[in-house]
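A favour, since you know our structure tokens better than I do. Go ahead and set the record down below.
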Amino acid sequence: MKEAFSCPAQLYERLVNLMEALGDRICCAGGVGGSAGLPPTSREIAVNQRYQQELTKADRHVRTFTDHDVAAFNATLKAAHLPAGVVP
């Protein structure tokens, strides 16, 4: 499980390869990206909505950082006659 946190892309790739190898034995539609044949449960929908909210909040923080904080940092450097720390 440590691998999931240290290199999630590699873990994801391994899981995709496993799904491809098992093919029709895993899901009705077969192959990667197919449907499980069942609609999402109310819990799955709730989790998805929560993740969407968290991603929206994280995106807002990143935009604030890049649009406001980086600009303020660069302005402080400019006032001190130093080159920009982060080029937008």
